[in-house]
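Sequence dictates fold. Next comes a concrete instance:
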Amino acid sequence: LDALRQMDSDTLRATINGDTLAHIAAAEGHQKVIQYLHEVVPDTLRTKNINNATPTHNAAVEGKLEVLEYLHEVVPNTLLAVDHNGETPAHWAAQGGHLEIIQYLYEVLPETLSTLANNGDTPAHFAADEGHLDIIKFIHEVVPKTLWIRNKDGWMTASCAEDNDQSAVVD
């Protein structure tokens, strides 16, 4: 553990795509590891992999709410971090189908549900692509205008759902 204290965030890269121990721990929901890394190598919680994804993105896509809450507490602006496609943790949570993450994001930073990725997709587009009706319903309830945003291809949420054979979202 003393050796870990002497390492910087670049030394802690563990995967071919540049994920650090923090990325892996966040994805697996290991909050105690995240807390320890924050104590000994705090910069690792801000580290981006080769796709510019942060540990917060990993926690969001895997539905690890407690880790996401902790990261939000100790890493300012982490919920607004964007990857190389301009996607926020809200996009990743919507794609992963994690309603509880979407609800939390709305509670602490409502504008995250309206953020646009580089291609103009909102988290609602991502949920529609994957057929996550519960997320579409929630977003419609709290930020209804988001469902009518057209991405750069001119598609609204319903168009994305139809194109990906997710008829339950459209019906």
About this structure: Residues 3-9 have pLDDT under 50 and may be disordered.
